[in-house]
Protein backbone atom coordinates (compact mmCIF):
# COMPACT_ATOMS: atom_id res chain seq x y z
CA UNK A 1 0.00 0.00 0.00
CA UNK A 2 1.13 3.55 -0.74
CA UNK A 3 3.57 4.95 1.83
CA UNK A 4 1.96 8.39 1.64
CA UNK A 5 -1.27 6.93 2.99
CA UNK A 6 0.52 5.53 6.05
CA UNK A 7 2.71 8.44 7.16
CA UNK A 8 3.49 8.39 10.90
CA UNK A 9 1.97 11.22 12.86
CA UNK A 10 4.19 13.12 15.35
CA UNK A 11 3.23 12.42 18.97
CA UNK A 12 2.69 16.11 19.65
CA UNK A 13 1.67 18.50 16.89
CA UNK A 14 3.13 21.97 16.40
CA UNK A 15 -0.12 23.60 17.53
CA UNK A 16 -0.32 21.38 20.61
CA UNK A 17 3.13 22.55 21.64
CA UNK A 18 2.02 26.19 21.42
CA UNK A 19 -1.17 25.61 23.41
CA UNK A 20 0.75 23.75 26.12
CA UNK A 21 3.15 26.71 26.60
CA UNK A 22 0.70 29.59 26.07
CA UNK A 23 0.16 30.43 29.76
CA UNK A 24 3.91 30.67 30.45
CA UNK A 25 4.76 32.95 27.53
CA UNK A 26 5.91 36.55 27.82
CA UNK A 27 3.63 39.19 26.17
CA UNK A 28 5.68 39.40 22.94
CA UNK A 29 5.84 35.62 22.64
CA UNK A 30 2.10 35.41 23.25
CA UNK A 31 1.49 37.95 20.47
CA UNK A 32 3.55 35.78 18.16
CA UNK A 33 1.70 32.68 19.37
CA UNK A 34 -1.69 34.28 18.64
CA UNK A 35 -0.54 35.10 15.11
CA UNK A 36 0.85 31.62 14.48
CA UNK A 37 -2.27 29.92 15.87
CA UNK A 38 -4.32 31.83 13.28
CA UNK A 39 -1.85 31.28 10.42
CA UNK A 40 0.40 28.30 11.32
CA UNK A 41 1.30 27.75 7.69
CA UNK A 42 3.20 31.05 7.63
CA UNK A 43 6.02 29.40 9.56
CA UNK A 44 6.72 27.10 6.61
CA UNK A 45 6.62 29.93 4.08
CA UNK A 46 8.72 32.64 5.71
CA UNK A 47 12.12 33.11 7.25
CA UNK A 48 12.38 33.98 10.93
CA UNK A 49 12.88 37.66 10.09
CA UNK A 50 9.85 37.74 7.78
CA UNK A 51 7.68 36.06 10.41
CA UNK A 52 8.88 38.57 13.02
CA UNK A 53 7.80 41.45 10.79
CA UNK A 54 4.40 39.90 10.10
CA UNK A 55 3.73 39.35 13.81
CA UNK A 56 5.29 42.68 14.84
CA UNK A 57 7.87 41.13 17.17
CA UNK A 58 11.68 40.97 17.26
CA UNK A 59 13.87 38.24 15.77
CA UNK A 60 14.97 37.38 19.31
CA UNK A 61 11.33 36.73 20.25
CA UNK A 62 10.98 34.28 17.36
CA UNK A 63 14.11 32.43 18.52
CA UNK A 64 12.91 32.24 22.14
CA UNK A 65 9.48 31.17 20.95
CA UNK A 66 10.64 28.12 18.95
CA UNK A 67 13.07 27.08 21.68
CA UNK A 68 10.28 27.27 24.25
CA UNK A 69 8.33 24.86 22.04
CA UNK A 70 11.19 22.34 22.21
CA UNK A 71 12.87 22.96 18.85
CA UNK A 72 16.61 23.43 18.49
CA UNK A 73 16.14 26.31 16.05
CA UNK A 74 13.66 27.94 13.68
CA UNK A 75 14.48 25.59 10.79
CA UNK A 76 13.56 22.55 12.86
CA UNK A 77 10.18 24.09 13.71
CA UNK A 78 9.73 24.99 10.06
CA UNK A 79 10.35 21.40 8.96
CA UNK A 80 7.78 20.15 11.47
CA UNK A 81 5.15 22.58 10.15
CA UNK A 82 5.90 21.57 6.56
CA UNK A 83 5.37 17.91 7.42
CA UNK A 84 2.02 18.78 8.99
CA UNK A 85 1.07 20.82 5.92
CA UNK A 86 1.58 17.66 3.87
CA UNK A 87 -1.07 15.93 5.98
CA UNK A 88 -3.64 18.18 4.33
CA UNK A 89 -4.92 20.07 7.38
CA UNK A 90 -6.64 23.22 6.10
CA UNK A 91 -5.48 25.33 9.06
CA UNK A 92 -1.83 24.86 8.04
CA UNK A 93 -2.66 26.13 4.56
CA UNK A 94 -4.31 29.39 5.68
CA UNK A 95 -2.10 32.45 5.12
CA UNK A 96 -2.59 36.09 5.97
CA UNK A 97 -4.38 37.99 3.14
CA UNK A 98 -2.01 39.61 0.65
CA UNK A 99 -3.42 39.70 -2.89
CA UNK A 100 -6.29 41.96 -4.04
CA UNK A 101 -9.64 40.21 -4.84
CA UNK A 102 -9.13 40.21 -8.63
CA UNK A 103 -5.77 38.47 -8.32
CA UNK A 104 -7.20 35.99 -5.81
CA UNK A 105 -10.04 35.05 -8.18
CA UNK A 106 -7.65 34.71 -11.11
CA UNK A 107 -5.30 32.50 -9.10
CA UNK A 108 -8.15 30.17 -8.10
CA UNK A 109 -9.55 29.90 -11.62
CA UNK A 110 -6.09 29.35 -13.10
CA UNK A 111 -5.41 26.54 -10.62
CA UNK A 112 -8.79 24.92 -11.32
CA UNK A 113 -8.14 24.81 -15.07
CA UNK A 114 -4.60 23.49 -14.49
CA UNK A 115 -5.89 20.72 -12.21
CA UNK A 116 -8.43 19.54 -14.78
CA UNK A 117 -5.94 19.65 -17.67
CA UNK A 118 -3.19 17.81 -15.79
CA UNK A 119 -5.53 15.20 -14.33
CA UNK A 120 -7.17 14.26 -17.63
CA UNK A 121 -3.85 14.26 -19.46
CA UNK A 122 -3.23 10.94 -17.67
CA UNK A 123 -6.77 9.54 -18.05
CA UNK A 124 -8.25 8.04 -21.21
CA UNK A 125 -11.93 7.68 -22.11
CA UNK A 126 -11.28 3.98 -22.70
CA UNK A 127 -10.26 3.55 -19.06
CA UNK A 128 -13.40 5.33 -17.88
CA UNK A 129 -15.53 3.22 -20.25
CA UNK A 130 -13.90 0.05 -18.88
CA UNK A 131 -14.95 1.06 -15.37
CA UNK A 132 -18.47 1.96 -16.56
CA UNK A 133 -18.85 -1.42 -18.28
CA UNK A 134 -17.60 -3.22 -15.17
CA UNK A 135 -20.20 -1.36 -13.10
CA UNK A 136 -22.97 -2.24 -15.55
CA UNK A 137 -22.08 -5.93 -15.58
CA UNK A 138 -21.43 -6.28 -11.83
CA UNK A 139 -23.69 -8.18 -9.47
CA UNK A 140 -23.49 -5.16 -7.14
CA UNK A 141 -21.60 -1.86 -7.16
CA UNK A 142 -20.08 -0.67 -3.89
CA UNK A 143 -18.93 2.95 -3.64
CA UNK A 144 -16.67 3.78 -0.69
CA UNK A 145 -15.66 7.14 0.75
CA UNK A 146 -14.77 8.60 4.14
CA UNK A 147 -14.69 12.27 5.21
CA UNK A 148 -14.30 14.50 2.09
CA UNK A 149 -14.35 11.41 -0.12
CA UNK A 150 -17.83 10.49 1.11
CA UNK A 151 -19.31 13.45 -0.78
CA UNK A 152 -18.10 12.05 -4.10
CA UNK A 153 -19.09 8.48 -3.22
CA UNK A 154 -22.61 9.61 -2.32
CA UNK A 155 -22.92 11.72 -5.49
CA UNK A 156 -21.79 8.89 -7.77
CA UNK A 157 -24.12 6.42 -6.06
CA UNK A 158 -27.05 8.85 -6.39
CA UNK A 159 -26.41 9.30 -10.12
CA UNK A 160 -25.74 5.72 -11.22
CA UNK A 161 -28.50 4.21 -9.07
CA UNK A 162 -30.93 5.55 -11.67
CA UNK A 163 -29.48 2.91 -14.00
CA UNK A 164 -27.85 0.33 -11.71
CA UNK A 165 -30.30 -0.72 -9.01
CA UNK A 166 -27.86 -2.70 -6.88
CA UNK A 167 -25.63 0.21 -5.89
CA UNK A 168 -24.47 0.76 -2.31
CA UNK A 169 -22.66 3.75 -0.81
CA UNK A 170 -20.40 2.98 2.18
CA UNK A 171 -20.00 3.27 5.09
CA UNK A 172 -23.52 2.97 6.49
CA UNK A 173 -24.34 4.48 9.88
CA UNK A 174 -24.21 1.90 12.65
CA UNK A 175 -22.34 -0.72 10.63
CA UNK A 176 -18.67 -1.65 10.46
CA UNK A 177 -16.72 -1.90 7.22
CA UNK A 178 -16.00 -5.55 8.00
CA UNK A 179 -19.73 -6.26 7.85
CA UNK A 180 -19.85 -4.73 4.37
CA UNK A 181 -16.61 -6.22 3.00
CA UNK A 182 -17.79 -9.71 4.00
CA UNK A 183 -20.59 -9.29 1.42
CA UNK A 184 -18.32 -8.20 -1.47
CA UNK A 185 -17.57 -10.88 -4.06
CA UNK A 186 -15.68 -11.47 -7.31
CA UNK A 187 -18.75 -10.56 -9.36
CA UNK A 188 -18.87 -7.08 -7.81
CA UNK A 189 -17.30 -3.74 -8.66
CA UNK A 190 -15.93 -1.37 -6.02
CA UNK A 191 -15.30 2.36 -6.50
CA UNK A 192 -13.20 3.80 -3.65
CA UNK A 193 -12.34 7.46 -3.12
CA UNK A 194 -9.14 7.87 -1.09
CA UNK A 195 -8.53 11.61 -1.07
CA UNK A 196 -6.51 13.27 1.67
CA UNK A 197 -7.04 13.65 4.60
CA UNK A 198 -8.01 10.02 4.80
CA UNK A 199 -8.91 7.90 7.82
CA UNK A 200 -5.96 5.81 8.97
CA UNK A 201 -7.75 2.52 8.35
CA UNK A 202 -8.31 3.24 4.64
CA UNK A 203 -5.20 1.35 3.36
CA UNK A 204 -6.19 -1.72 5.40
CA UNK A 205 -9.80 -1.49 4.22
CA UNK A 206 -8.66 -1.21 0.61
CA UNK A 207 -6.36 -4.22 0.98
CA UNK A 208 -9.23 -6.34 2.25
CA UNK A 209 -11.48 -5.16 -0.60
CA UNK A 210 -8.83 -6.15 -3.15
CA UNK A 211 -8.63 -9.62 -1.57
CA UNK A 212 -12.31 -10.19 -2.37
CA UNK A 213 -11.41 -10.33 -6.07
CA UNK A 214 -13.87 -7.59 -7.00
CA UNK A 215 -12.84 -5.21 -9.77
CA UNK A 216 -11.68 -2.11 -7.92
CA UNK A 217 -11.24 1.50 -8.99
CA UNK A 218 -9.50 3.97 -6.66
CA UNK A 219 -9.40 7.77 -6.92
CA UNK A 220 -6.64 9.57 -5.00
CA UNK A 221 -4.68 12.81 -5.04
CA UNK A 222 -1.92 13.05 -7.62
CA UNK A 223 0.93 12.57 -5.11
CA UNK A 224 -0.20 9.04 -4.25
CA UNK A 225 2.04 6.38 -5.79
CA UNK A 226 0.27 4.17 -8.32
CA UNK A 227 -1.45 1.27 -6.59
CA UNK A 228 -0.64 -1.86 -8.55
CA UNK A 229 -3.05 -4.14 -6.70
CA UNK A 230 -6.23 -2.34 -7.82
CA UNK A 231 -7.82 -2.68 -11.27
CA UNK A 232 -7.89 1.06 -11.98
CA UNK A 233 -6.20 3.95 -10.22
CA UNK A 234 -7.06 7.52 -11.20
CA UNK A 235 -4.92 10.28 -9.69
CA UNK A 236 -6.44 13.76 -9.67
CA UNK A 237 -4.63 17.05 -9.23
CA UNK A 238 -5.92 18.78 -6.08
CA UNK A 239 -3.51 21.72 -5.77
CA UNK A 240 -5.18 24.94 -4.63
CA UNK A 241 -4.57 28.67 -4.46
CA UNK A 242 -6.09 28.73 -0.96
CA UNK A 243 -6.24 26.64 2.21
CA UNK A 244 -8.71 24.02 0.92
CA UNK A 245 -7.71 21.39 -1.61
CA UNK A 246 -9.41 21.84 -4.99
CA UNK A 247 -11.53 18.83 -5.91
CA UNK A 248 -12.86 20.14 -9.22
CA UNK A 249 -10.97 17.48 -11.20
CA UNK A 250 -12.35 14.76 -8.92
CA UNK A 251 -15.89 16.05 -9.53
CA UNK A 252 -15.26 16.17 -13.28
CA UNK A 253 -14.06 12.56 -13.26
CA UNK A 254 -17.05 11.46 -11.18
CA UNK A 255 -19.49 13.26 -13.45
CA UNK A 256 -17.91 11.78 -16.59
CA UNK A 257 -18.01 8.26 -15.14
CA UNK A 258 -21.70 8.61 -14.22
CA UNK A 259 -22.46 10.00 -17.69
CA UNK A 260 -20.70 7.12 -19.43
CA UNK A 261 -22.60 4.59 -17.30
CA UNK A 262 -25.85 6.09 -18.58
CA UNK A 263 -24.67 6.33 -22.18
CA UNK A 264 -23.32 2.76 -22.29
CA UNK A 265 -26.28 1.23 -20.45
CA UNK A 266 -28.43 0.79 -23.55
CA UNK A 267 -32.15 1.33 -23.97
CA UNK A 268 -33.13 -1.68 -21.85
CA UNK A 269 -31.12 -0.56 -18.80
CA UNK A 270 -32.36 3.01 -19.23
CA UNK A 271 -35.90 1.67 -18.78
CA UNK A 272 -35.40 2.06 -15.02
CA UNK A 273 -34.63 5.76 -15.55
CA UNK A 274 -37.85 6.13 -17.54
CA UNK A 275 -39.85 4.33 -14.84
CA UNK A 276 -38.45 6.65 -12.17
CA UNK A 277 -39.47 9.75 -14.12
CA UNK A 278 -42.96 8.33 -14.68
CA UNK A 279 -43.33 7.80 -10.92
CA UNK A 280 -42.07 11.32 -10.20
CA UNK A 281 -44.93 12.63 -12.31
CA UNK A 282 -47.50 10.22 -10.85
CA UNK A 283 -46.86 11.18 -7.21
CA UNK A 284 -45.94 14.81 -7.96
CA UNK A 285 -42.72 14.32 -6.01
CA UNK A 286 -40.54 16.78 -7.92
Low-confidence stretches: none
Q: In this structure, how is the largest beta sheet organized? A: 5 strands, parallel
- Relative helix content: 40-55%
Question: Approximately how much beta-strand content do the residues carry?
Answer: 5-15%
Give the helix/strand class. alpha/beta
Radius of gyration: 23 Å
Q: Tally the beta strands.
A: 5
Overall 3D form: elongated
Main features:
52% helix, 286 residues, alpha/beta, 5-stranded parallel β-sheet
Explain how this protein is built:
The structure is a single chain. The chain has 286 residues and is of the alpha/beta class. Helix content is 52%, strand content 9%. Strands 2-1-3-4-5 form a five-stranded parallel sheet, sandwiched between helices. It is elongated.
Q: How do you describe this structure in short?
A:
The protein is of the alpha/beta class and 286 residues long.
List the helices and strands and how they pair.
Layout: H1 14-21, H2 27-38, H3 42-45, H4 48-55, H5 59-68, H6 74-85, H7 101-120, H8 125-137, E1 141-145, H9 148-160, E2 167-170, H10 177-181, E3 189-193, H11 202-211, E4 215-221, E5 232-236, H12 248-264, H13 266-269, H14 271-282
Parallel strand pairs: 1-2, 1-3, 3-4, 4-5
Amino acid sequence: MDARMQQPVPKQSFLQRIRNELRQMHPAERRLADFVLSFPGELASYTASELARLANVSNATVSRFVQRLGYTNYEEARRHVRSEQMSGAALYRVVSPADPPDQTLHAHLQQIHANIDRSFAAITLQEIDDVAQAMLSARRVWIVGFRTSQSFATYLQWQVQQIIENTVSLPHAGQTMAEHIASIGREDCVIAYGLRRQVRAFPLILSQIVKTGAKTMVVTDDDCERLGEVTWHFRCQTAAAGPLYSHVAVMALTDLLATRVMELAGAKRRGRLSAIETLHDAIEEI
